[in-house]
Amino acid sequence: VQLQASGGGLVQPGGSLRLSCAASGSISRFNIMGWYRQAPGKERELVASITSADNINYADSVRGRFTITRDNAKNTMYLQMNSLRPEDTAVYYCDAQERLVTYWGQGTEVTVSS
Predict the structure, then answer these.
(1) Quick check: 57 and 67 in contact, CB under 8 A?
(2) Among 22, 31, 35, 91, which residue's beta carbon has the most beta carbons within 10 A?
(3) Sheet holding 66-71, edge to edge
(4) 3-state secondary structure of 87
């Protein structure tokens, strides 16, 4: 299984971006999928996760601004990011868990700056 993250870029504070995580196969096999981020000098942290039953969890820092969704028909997970702040600047990674196995995508860089 390969995960391909995309959609990062440079955006001004208050702007929006939509990240995509495309899987090489069906995502319905995954118990849970998620977005993580890692800022320079900081540990990787969970941003949002979504289960196969569409149970969703957000980090407190992004709740109300970010929305995670998954489209099984397109084998893709998304992260809609609104009202972006400079502190959202990081490399964003997607992951997917199938039973005891975790797959990671490569990172996509998000920079929020004026």
Answers:
(1) no
(2) 35
(3) 3-6, 17-23, 76-81, 66-71
(4) helix
Compute the distance between CA of residue 71 and CA of residue 95 in angstroms, rounded to an integer.
Answer: 15
Q: 102 φ, ψ to 5°?
A: -115, 130
Give the pLDDT confidence of 54-105 residue by residue, as tens digits: 999 999 999 999 999 999 999 999 999 999 999 999 999 999 999 989 999 9
* Both tokens assigned to 55: 């149970």
The DSSP code for 88 is G
* DSSP class per residue in 13-55: TT--EEEEEEESS-STT-SEEEEEEE-TTS--EEEEEEETT--
Q: How many residues does the chain have?
A: 114
What tokens were used for 72? 């099984």
* CB contact set of 53 (below 8 Å; sequence gap of 6+): none
